[in-house]
Amino acid sequence: MTELPARRLMLVHAHPDDESINNGATMARYAAEGAHVTLVTCTLGERGEVIPDELRHLSGAALGGHRLGELRDAMRALGVTDFRLLGGAGRYCDSGMMGLPDNEDPGCFWQADVDQAAATLAEVILEVRPQVLVTYDENGGYGHPDHIQTHRVAMRAVELAAASGWDIPKVYWNRVPRSVVEESFARLDGDLAGLPFDKAGAVDDVPGVVDDERITTVIDGTAYASAKAAAMRAHATQIAVAEPYFVLSNELAQPLFTTEYYELVRGERPGVRESDLFAGVGAGGAS
Ligand SMILES: [Zn+2]
Fold first, then answer.
1. What gap in Å lies between CA 171 and CA 206, rounded to an integer?
2. N or C: which end of the chain has fewer CB within 10 A?
3. Which of 58, 98, 74 is nearest to 24 (CA)?
4. pLDDT exceeds 50 at position 230
């Protein structure tokens, strides 16, 4: 095996675009600092709603193929070269929103066998040996079946990899502190008239919001704000950006956070807030 960089970060996401929205600044920062950044995306988001009129004809596999191209462009913007689809592109398809008949599609990620998908992810973990893994909380941040399943598969894969010789020292869930979200929406209400968006969203539109005291780690990605915005713009079927705000297909404006927040759920909880996901991890990590 070729020698791995000292610091290795893995992120596990449901659809192309989730990584840029949740972790774009973090990924750009660590890639720029020479860490090895690995993104594993579980589906191609074939059932996503398309924003631009001129791309609205895309659906199913054609949309998935297009979104893979968007993901490539986003990774170029963030400086990340190692990105993979779980089990290969098209292995698991998008499950659609919760409660739709799409959830019953036998090929969709929601129907995947968790242990089997986790074994596939564990192989990647054993290859890359990350000291840090980032994914969603048990509700997938906001209840989308693919996000919930991503949580289950990622957390199970962490256990499987630990049993096979690589115990990831630190696992984080994506979070946003409630106070920050509330302040940002208050600012958005004042800014809305000057934006290309008609309506503002609300706190509930932001995934992973928790009380401030649950936040263990704050990554200041201000220096990577333009890289994050460029990565989000690359996902043009899903996101429209007007910094420092953006909309998804529901057309409700929400803040674009360039400081990103995390809750440590595996590893010793720090006494004070960390400013580095690798804090306390030795160069070699666990062995
Ligand atoms: Zn998603």
1. 21
2. N
3. 74
4. yes
Q: How far is CA 146 from CA 41, 59, 112, 171, 187, in A?
A: 10, 18, 10, 19, 31
pTM of the model: 0.96
Instruction: Report whether 144 belongs to an annotated binding site.
Output: no
* 105-159 residue pLDDT tens: 999 999 999 999 999 999 999 999 999 999 999 999 889 999 999 999 999 999 9
Angle of helix 145-163 versus helix 114-128 axis, rounded to 10: 60
- Using the mean position of ligand 1's atoms as its centre, give its distance from the Cα of residue 173 in Å: 15
Q: Residue 233 corresponds to which amino acid?
A: R
How far is 83 from 87, CA to CA, in rounded Å?
A: 12
Token pair 């920062």 in the structure block, residue = 29
Confirm or deny that 18 is annotated as ligand binding.
yes
Number of residues written out for the chain: 287
Q: How far is the CA of 14 from the centre of ligand 1 (A)?
A: 5
